Amino acid sequence: MSGESNGKLTESTAMLTPEIKFTKLFINGQFVDSISGKTFETIDPRTGDVITKVAEGNKEDIDLAVEAARDAFDNGPWPRLSGAQRRRILMKLADLIEENAEELAALDAIDGGRLFHDGKTIDIPGAAETIRYYAGVADKIHGETLKMSREFQAYTLREPIGVVGHIIPWNFPTQMFAMKVGPALAAGCTMIVKPAEQTPLSALYCAHLTKLAGIPDGAVNVVTGYGSVAGAAISSHMDIDKVSFTGSTEVGRLIMQAAAMSNLKQVSLELGGKSPIIIFDDAELDKAVDLALLGTLYNKGEICVAGSRVFVQEGIYVEFLKKLEEKVGSWVVGDPFDLDSKQGPQVEKKQFEKILSYIEHGKREGATLLAGGKRFGEMGYYVQPTIFADVKDDMIIAKEEIFGPVMSVLKFKTIGEVIRRANATKYGLAAGVITSNLDTANTVSRSIRAGVIWINCYFAFDQDSPYGGYKMSGFGRDLGIDGLDKYLHVKSVATPIYNTPWL
């Protein structure tokens, strides 16, 4: 086996830990202990050591947070401020997030294994820009004047949906906080945020920043705890009007069931993926290899749009594998605070072991192990970038979401064949198309059943571009104006008109 990854894990970088300032629940503008007094440990994936203990919220704590959010919505100032007033406060929140970029990036690095440099230069500035984007539309939420067919005049109002429960994942903690909280606040909603139990620290820090920005007490509440308890309490709560969830398809099913069995609250889900990257014979080879590596290995593969199924046309298949094997050898695995690192540790031991079990599946099923295939180092939850070639569509590694740095390379002949095979999945989140032929790009992008298609690029996210899935990758959209619309009701208002010269 060749293509072993470079990397380094040093005692000096592994011990870098920012001061932990916030570990309690944030309810009604105050940091408070959980009612039970229970706490849980949040773990540093670089070492497996405990970072700190965080308040463990349960159903009673969710009830308190919902009570605060409901009162803030029904009686408080936030939904009743003008859009311009909300805009000014959200702009202040964005500035505060940006001013505290280093601390937030460090929290996401020690809590979730996110690269500190990427967090500081991409994630946290991106979170601030997301808040600014929705601040910019807060005073532009308009209804329509309707042309009625009878003697009525009518118009629509777009009103905040009410109290929202946000259940956010662990792979991009600060970015996901902004993607959920930003549009909901711009719409005039109040909310409860339940961060992933693996990565609670940056959400609590952001809660502190909402207070500094001037967001009224009760409008934003953050309850840390386990998904099976606190998340379930949000999903089934009779006084929550909407749940927005990003995470696994399995948990998405449970949330829909709970919503249906309680008050039929609205639900939006951004779920799993097994996204294809389709590389045609006419692609620029070096660029194709770089995009395939990025698409699979970015954030150690812990990203729902990871392009982990790489379809390569037969004319360049052998050469592609050769270049891929060469380039993966320079992919540096190491401590997230090391500037040379391209890949940090997996978020937790459970996910680490799950990824290694999938790698063993690939070996047993007869795929060719081109690179990687085992843990990296002796400390923490690091996995070697792993590439399997000669993968078949019915192999487990080609069908199931691994959520780790594992690439499956598959060979194809024709455009019709690869469209059929790319669509032969229960997921439909994203896809990449790499070709120099515009007709091919257009045909494939319109044929793939997925919510996001990237042509000759990958991870081309932007605040203005809606993001979400087809099929079992969920429904509803984050980002863009679509990301705002899901937090708004549409109300029609009609009055009769008399003796008008026209309708």
Automatic annotation (TrEMBL):
Homotetramer. Gene3D superfamilies: Aldehyde Dehydrogenase, Chain A, domain 1, Aldehyde Dehydrogenase, Chain A, domain 2. The keyword Oxidoreductase applies. It catalyses: octanal + NADP(+) + H2O = octanoate + NADPH + 2 H(+). Pfam families: Aldedh. The lineage of its organism: Eukaryota, Viridiplantae, Streptophyta, Embryophyta, Tracheophyta. The active site is at residue 270. This is Aldehyde dehydrogenase 1. Belongs to the aldehyde dehydrogenase family. It comes from the Eukaryota. Residues 31-493 form the Aldehyde dehydrogenase domain. PANTHER family: ALDEHYDE DEHYDROGENASE-RELATED (PTHR11699). It comes from Heracleum sosnowskyi.
